[in-house]
Amino acid sequence: MSKQTEKTYWKSLAEREALLDPSVPMPSPMPESGVFDEGMAAGLLNLAQSATELRMDRGAFLKLVGFGMAGAALAGCNKAAEKALPYLVQPEEVTPGLSSYYATVCGGCSAGCGALSKTRDGRPLKLEGNPSHPLNTGALCATGQASVLGVYDNRRLKGPRIDGQAASWADTDKAVLAGLASAKAKGGKVRILSRSVISPTLNAQIKAFLAGFAGAQHVCYDALSVSAVLDAHAQTHGRRVLPHYRLDKAAVIVAFEADFLGTWVSPVEFAKAYQAGRKADKKDSAFSKHFQVEGGMTVTGTKADKRITIKPGEVAAALGHLAQRLGGPAAWAAGASPIADKDLDAMAKQLAAARGAGLVLCGSQDLQAQLITNWINNHLGNYGRTLDLRNPSLQKQGDDAAVAGLIDELKKGEVHALLVLDADPVYDLPRGAELAEALKKVPLSVSFALGDDDTASLCKVRTPDHHWLEAWSDAEPILGTVGVIQPALRPLGDTRQAAESLAKWAGKGQEALDLVQRYWKQHIAPKAGRGKPFLAFWESSLKAGVVSTGEAAPGAEGFRQPAVKAAAAAAGLEISFFPRVSLLDGTHANNPWLQEMPDPISKVAWDQTLALSPETAKKLGFKEGDVISISMEGAPGGLTLPLHLQAGQHPDVVSVPLGYGRPGTDRFNNVGPKWILAKPVVEPGQRLGSSVQALLPVSAGLTQFSRGGVTLQATGKNIELAKTQLHQSLDVPSNVVPAAGPRVPIVQELSLAEFRQGVEADRHEGGEKEELGSLYKEHEYPGHRWAMAIDMNACNGCSACVVACNVENNVPVVGREEVRRAHEMHWIRIDRYYSDGEDGDLDIVAQPMMCQQCGHAPCEPVCPVDATTHSSEGINMQTYNRCVGTRYCANNCPYKVRRFNWFDYPALQGDEALALNPDVTVRTRGVMEKCNFCVQRVAEQKAESKRNGADIQDGDIKTACQQTCPAEAIVFGDINDPASRVSRLAKDARAFKVLEELGVRPSVTYLAQVRNKS
Amino acid sequence: MQQEHAVIDPIDEPLVQGNKTLQQVTRDVADHLDQPSSKAWWVGLGISASALALGGLCILYLMTYGIGTIGKNKTIGWGFLITNFVFWVGIGHAGTLISAILYLLRQKWRTSVNRSAEAMTLIAVMCAGLFPLMHMGRPWLFYYLMPYPNTRGSLWMNFRSPLVWDMLAISTYFTVSAVFWYLGLIPDLATLRDRATSKVKKAVYTLMAFGWNGSGRAWHRYELVYLILAGLATPLVLSVHSVVSFDFATSLIPGWHTTILPPYFVAGAIFSGFAMVLTLMLVARKTMHFEEYITQRHIDAMTKVILLTSMLVGLAYLSEFFVAWYSGSRYEQFHFLNRFFGPDGWWAWVMYGCNMVVPQVLWFRKVRENLVLVFIISLLVNVGMWFERWVIIVSSLQADYLPSSWNFYRPTIFDFGVMLGSFGLFFTLFLLFAKFLPMIAIAEIKHEVAHGGHAIKHGEAA
To answer: Which of B73, B157, B337 sits opposite A866 (nearest CB)?
Structure first.
């Protein structure tokens, strides 16, 4: 060591003194912090609130001083006085500023996808799919991505209540126990009503609890019921189960009214598996053939190789005809086929040719249709291959008939105690109003709901459950695959987990962790533990998040020929009630991210619409946005909704989304900027949209999602829908067709035959070589150069990436009026284009569009203040605090991916601000923003590899959109590395770039859509 | 019979009619400055100031709540505000063109109108200057666009950005125009000083006249500086709108990305500037009884300039269509078709109708001599030119490359309010100018009157 380096440098006189004299204490490098608060979460809440207030003050302050010269001097003095909350003893696994990932299971719906909760400083920030979970291998849907906000929902109950009054847990328990005792004494019925429960531990607790009462029952329902599938299997296979559909093993998929990529049963898993079966990576790779038969337009329909429209009421007839062509009874094919013979023949031929590798899916709630579906699948030997009954799905266990029975019992006043668990039956069920009325007769009604919903507010006792991010639990979506749920933060309120409550009331008061561990010790460890000591097994399970127990149901019994009653389809308009990709059954309807997510098909955000085919609308004299009053035969009241013209809709089908009119949506009164022309999303106290549940007919005990006898009547009003895309086609309007042709060449498609013959996607002639020289020095990328590849063949438009990006990048929600004014802030969007295919089909493509990180970025030179610049790694960066907001860059962007903060949009409000990503700046009013390839993730990984001394490996860095994509359509990586996936994809036969001919050198490669037209 | 003493050009009609003596000239121009204001002036000021106040409130609201109060969106980042900016900058061309270029070209007829035209230029550039400031997302950081010393590693603006060129070009133009205008005012200010009766007026005009004594040396220096400034201002007239056009020409948006824009914009600016001068002069001539100073000959000259520039912009328009067709670029071709036949095609029809077709009637002497018609045409030209900028900016942006992003502009009351405010500002300042400063260059007119003395007298020959 040289002499120079031994020199000690002092930074202050005090330090110098200390250096010279050891008795003088060394001055603290950090300012002394005052407060230590043991309640970390509570403290953080306060901090977040004060920060929100502070931000407002500071914003207003800056605005004021910005105009005055004297203000400049004052601005420097505006230092916030914040209270720091240091750890007294730093927990071992916590490093401030670094995130920990806890394996858990997403509780967004009952699909039970494995998730990782990204947690920092004791609060979960984002959910990501658990890559080790076999169901979703790392992906999550939009709902899953958005559901992290639920934990911070400030409308959650803070503690138990009796008759609407806050009570202590002791009093509450006393009240419940007294009620239960009286039920027992009087011999009254005890019932638990829940949605499908996929937690084995909770199920065990429910069983144990109910065992204490004679004749007690657990009744399950699903708001998006597939009860008919289970009932049909009860008839044909002797077991009331939902098969585990293996789309990855299917060479021919025929789906009837089943939006399996968007909303049906387990869309993430299905999208993964579907994609696995039709990868266009190699010329000879297998590529499934997909027929979609449906009435409305779904994301699944957009991916189909052949899409056929029929009315929902015709599904059974169509299936009957299909079965008949495959050798089924002629009686099933009574009447005319709703599907053209040519298509039926093609379907039958391909299914028959793919024996054992075909799969017929039916999402209809018509039992007859399900029975025929089972017959076809059985006839073609698909059971055991593409439909797994030995490891069935437990994701939907609901029994519509049982629920109907329960409501009847309630109405008769036979039920003494009703416990409503993870469910809002008053909203969800078609007979919700009856249930609400009957609930008054129940002496003891208990709700475990987290906050107010339509059922909970009618229940006498409220024992709020933990949010699943606060809970210890488990989930078994597929028999034999068990995920573990562990808390990501301490409960924010004085809540108690339902399983704990049930155990307590059953007389075995135990903590949730003990309950889960005890169950796992008894039931899971023996099967999955491979002889490891329990604690070691538990630790490893917690880490992995999922275990396989190898459990399987006994082999299926022989197929019983079903007795099918051939149904005749009714004529006239039919209404179809469908789940929107963003809202599903409406459980998360109060989540602003999901409401602002444009529907993948209609591109409508916020609004509940009525979809009708343009032809029918023309015939009826309606135009887009007309407010239509719908009346239905035999339905109480009606509906009044604005019209959305939907290409590809069956001419006789009217589609209306479910999930609206949910309790809690009144909060959206507060969303969006406040100014003189602002229009709130909902009026104070009103709900967003109308609930259509009461309009769902119940036929043979099964909740139906369509009904006939529909008449439409214009009300004379017209509103502008909050659509994020106004022009729907790649073809320019027919009156302005340029000489170069009508189609804007930004999307490329290949038929499977072309792809197999080696036809390549069109590239711009000459590529970059033919460009003229530049006056400026070319950018150099000495290290990495980040790039992306997007497989349009894989993307189904599900928009999980949109929400993931919102969560990751603190993208604000702006509200309906701002979306109408085209002020939405999404950094990534899914462009959806319709075109008329050669075979007369409507071909639809989804093109994810985000900043293309151009090598010759048109936005960069035009910024007058150098706020947008090129990084040495090829990322087009945006410096928010430099931006003055001329919007020149946005104008000059040919992809129109830049987003501007037109107002001071609050990123998240109230406690929800805790979910903000601390790695990403919250932008203020007047600055431009856009996708930056999740530069914070790149930086994090670079720091990580620097620490480890290892190079960044391909795939180490995943952008938020890529990470969550169920179809694995997005690949991010270093294009300077010739071996990286993105480099290879950039040279793929299907590779093309959007608007390459402009010479802007986009870094994003798109891979052409392939359709199996054989 | 009144003694005729017409000021006449050796080969053409007299520049000033009515056989003015030098004293008469002073009185005609300066007398009203000493008199109480007319009712019409008060009404005009009332309306203009109200519009300004309304616009001011809109601007205040806009600044407080954000630029989202204006009808722009993710696709159309510029709209009303930038249209108004380009419109006013265009208007601001005529004054300096008249005073500098026509001065150098020895076009003596300019003397009657150059003062007002220059004032109009300055006011129009002030109006224009408001808009870029207002349209910024964070206007309080406007100084980021200026090259000032700072502690950010001396982070300056991006010299590659046309907006920076804009800022430099317009501020230079404004400075030179203002100095040029003020210089021309000095002898007249001295005249006002000398005839001022009230003490306040005397003091103010004395201060403003910079001690002008009318000596031969003063006149010599004055003439020299005036010539130099005219020489300096001349290239600026051409550069300002060329630079403004770079905002569009250097981008890659179909309808913007075209090399013809600089001359196209300059021609358009002269076109609209002259139309605006004509509009104002026709009103001033009537209300302030300047018929003998602003004669049919002036009007004729200005309408002919309008006719010429109308054909120049027409040529530019047609070249654009040709280039779009010839380029083979589908986006360009689509843009021009969409401009005419798209959902907002009527904008283009207004633009082409007012700018290319309407001025053609000026070929007829009868039309040029019908002042009502000329007034209407001048207004239509201004409407047309406003729409030209609107079409270029908004119709180009609203449907560029990706159909998914095509959108529409949805103006709010604030769009209109701010625009109204800019007209309010323009007319308020112009009315104040008319009230407190000589609208016609007294000294220059006197020069013409004095030199016209030994020319042939019209009328008496007969």
So the answer is: B157
Per-residue pLDDT, A777: 83
Q: Among A388, A442, A389, A386, which Cα is nearest to A417's?
A: A442
* Residue A67 reports pLDDT greater than 50: no
Nearest to B157 among A730, A833, A864 (CB): A864
Classify residue B462: in a domain, yes or no: no
Q: B-chain residues within 8 Å CB-CB of A894?
A: 252-253, 400-402
Q: What is the pLDDT of residues A621-677, one digit of tens each?
A: 999 999 999 999 888 788 999 999 999 999 999 999 999 999 889 999 989 899 999
Contact at CB, A744 and B402, closer than 8 angstroms = yes
pLDDT tens-digit map of A921-957:
999 999 999 999 999 999 999 998 998 888 899 999 9
Tell me if B233 is assigned to some domain: yes
B151 close contact with A: CB closer than 8 A: no
Phi and psi of B452, rounded to 5°?
-75, -10
Q: Is the CB of B75 less than 8 angstroms away from the CB of A896?
A: yes
Tokens of B266: 């300059």
| Residue A528 contacts residue A547 (beta carbons within 8 Å) | yes
Which CATH number covers residue B265? 1.20.1630.10
Q: Which domains does chain A have, with CATH numbers?
A: 228-393 (3.40.228.10), 574-718 (2.40.40.20), 734-762+782-1011 (3.30.70.20)
Structure tokens at A474: 């488990």
Cβ of B329 under 8 Å from any chain A Cβ? yes
Instruction: Say if B122 falls within a structural domain.
Output: yes
Predicted local confidence at residue B101, as pLDDT: 82
Scanning B370-399 for CB atoms below 8 A from A yields 397, 399
pLDDT at A817 over 70: yes
B contacts of A744 (beta carbons < 8 Å): 330, 401-403
Mutation target vs B (from A721, A764, A902, A923; most B CBs, 10 A cutoff)? A902
Q: Which of A144-158, B132-146, B275-289 has the lowest mean pLDDT?
A: B275-289
Please give the Cα distance from A647 to A834 (Å, whole number). Answer: 8
From the CA of B407, how many Å to the nearest CA of chain A? 7
Q: What is the pTM of this model?
A: 0.89
Cα A308 to its chain centre, rounded Å, is 27
Q: What is the rounded radius of gyration, in angstroms, for the C-alpha atoms of chain A?
A: 30
Q: Which domain does B41 fall in, by range?
A: 22-147+157-452
Interchain pair A901, B66: CB under 8 A: yes
Are the C-beta atoms of A118 and A126 separated by less than 8 Å? Answer: yes
- The answer for residues whose C-beta is within 8 angstroms of residue A796's C-beta and 6 or more apart is A261, A262, A271, A299, A300, A302, A303, A600, A846, A967
Say whether pLDDT at B9 is over 80.
Answer: no
Contact A725 B404 (CB under 8 A): yes
Q: Do B251 and A890 count as a contact with CB atoms less than 8 A apart?
A: no
For residue B7, being part of any structural domain is answered with no
Compare all CA atoms of chain A with the CA of B330 and give the residue at the minimum distance.
Answer: A740
Residue length, chain B? Answer: 462
What mean pLDDT value characterizes chain A? Answer: 88
Rounded to the nearest angstrom, the minimum Cα separation between A620 and chain B is 24
Query: B39 in contact with A at a CB cutoff of 8 Å?
Result: no
- When divided into structural domains, chain B yields a total of 1
As a whole number of angstroms, the distance between CA A914 and CA A917 comes to: 8
CA of A924 vs chain B CAs: smallest distance (Å): 10
